[in-house]
Design a protein that fits this description.
Helices cover about 70% and strands about 0% of the residues. By secondary structure, it is mostly helical. Helix 1 runs parallel beside helix 10, helix 3 runs antiparallel to helix 4 and helix 4 runs antiparallel to helix 5. The longest helix has about 35 residues. The radius of gyration is 20 Å and the shape is globular. The model has no long low-confidence stretch (mean pLDDT about 90).
Length: about 280
């Protein structure tokens, strides 16, 4: 595990005490504005803990986007310019910090924040708003500490409902279940990693294999490789759910679930895999 990955894992584990603190102290005792402040500050602290001063790239993009919306309003032309400017910043990051193999850099959180910013704009556009709403509510939504590192995504209207809640939710059981799933996925990933690596398919040894052997290996290797995404999403969902995020209209707590574990692990078609994986980004 690289140093960047280590800080990311540590940051994700810190979301659990933050979730408990929010659940039992912040949620029932503070106003929506104070919740916005708490979530903004803790989200920023996680950014700088995991990525150091490079996190300023995200802060600049998020703040600049809000000013952009404030000055030019919520309209189609603004959306196009906003998308071009934020994507250009992200592409700059990919070009300057990416290597042959994947490394954890500030582009990870920049991508997550960019999706939130665009989602925020589109939610206001759909509601026929002319200007952005409260800056604190906006930053709390984008920097939401339980999902700001790796996702999953969720819509702004869901955050507005979340910040108004003052009753401790009955979400603890579901949150702990997701944490249990994360432990299983982590065990599978690191257990199999003892026998292979994430960079093996670009190695000279792999390139020397026959085509049938390559195809067979990639089939199983890809399934194993994806378990780490399932693990980190389950961690984020767990912390967010413990804090009270993810309630559905039916009273369940899978409102921000990003991978349908049963469907994904038993899928027999590409369509089933696509619709059960990274669900919030697709549906958003």
């Amino acid at each position: 595990m690289s140093m960047g990955e280590g800080y990311l894992v540590a940051g994700m584990l810190l979301t659990f005490p933050l979730a408990l603190l929010y659940r039992y102290l912040i949620l029932p005792c503070t106003s929506p504005k104070h919740k916005d402040i708490f979530l903004t500050l803790t989200g920023l602290l996680l950014y700088f803990f995991c990525f150091g001063m490079a996190a300023w790239h995200v802060v600049l993009m998020v703040t600049g986007s809000y000013v952009f919306m404030l000055v030019f309003g919520i309209r189609v032309s603004t959306c196009i310019l906003l998308f071009i400017s934020t994507m250009s910043h992200l592409l700059y990051g990919y070009v300057t910090v990416s290597g042959v193999s994947y490394t954890v850099t500030w582009t990870l959180i920049h991508c997550q924040a960019l999706l939130k910013v665009v989602g925020y704009f589109l939610d206001l556009f759909d509601d026929k708003k002319d200007i952005p709403e409260s800056f604190l509510a906006y930053t709390a939504y984008v920097y939401f500490p339980f999902t700001n590192l790796v996702g999953p995504q969720f819509q702004y209207y869901r955050y507005k409902k979340f910040r108004e809640t003052t009753t401790i939710p009955n979400s603890l059981k579901y949150g702990l279940r997701q944490a249990g799933l994360a432990v299983v996925y982590i065990g599978v990933f690191y257990g199999i990693k003892q026998f292979t690596s994430t960079d093996f398919i670009i190695s000279e040894e792999f390139l020397s294999w026959s085509l049938p052997a390559k195809l067979l290996f990639i089939t199983f290797w890809t399934k194993w490789f994806i378990t780490r995404y399932c693990a980190i999403w389950c961690v984020s969902e767990s912390a967010a759910c413990i804090a009270g995020m993810g309630e559905t209209e039916e009273g369940g707590w899978d409102g921000i679930v990003n991978v349908d574990v049963v469907k994904f692990e038993t899928s027999l078609t590409i369509q089933d895999e696509l619709t059960s994986f990274n669900m919030q980004t697709i549906s958003g």
